[in-house]
What we know:
- This protein is mainly alpha-helical.
- The protein has one domain (1-107).
- Helix content is 98%, strand content 0%.
- The longest helix is centred in the middle third of the chain and has 141 residues, at 3-143.
Amino acid sequence: xxxxxxxxxxxxxxxxxxxxxxxxxxxxxxxxxxxxxxxxxxxxxxxxxxxxxxxxxxxxxxxxxxxxxxxxxxxxxxxxxxxxxxxxxxxxxxxxxxxxxxxxxxxxxxxxxxxxxxxxxxxxxxxxxxxxxxxxxxxxxxxx
Length: 144
């Protein structure tokens, strides 16, 4: 092989190597860009994870606040139930006493009504007797 052919062959080989090197360089750049994109995505995921953790903490705090509010309401309801039970007992006794008094007054009123009816009957009878006596007296006076 002569020198020119050798040089052509070496030049062809260098050109092929240069083409492959160029392709490798472009592939390397593409890999680096992909790596940067993955790193940015990872950072975005980490920010999202932190945001989720903060949201979770906020939800936990809200849950605790709701639990405390529920406990407070339960305590108030228990106190109200106690007061209502006491009022029911007090009023129940007072109502029973009032009803007893009402029944006693009703009996006394019925007794008084019965007595008044008897008195009225007697007065009516006395009025009749007085009227008869008056007539008898006036007849005796006329006869004299």
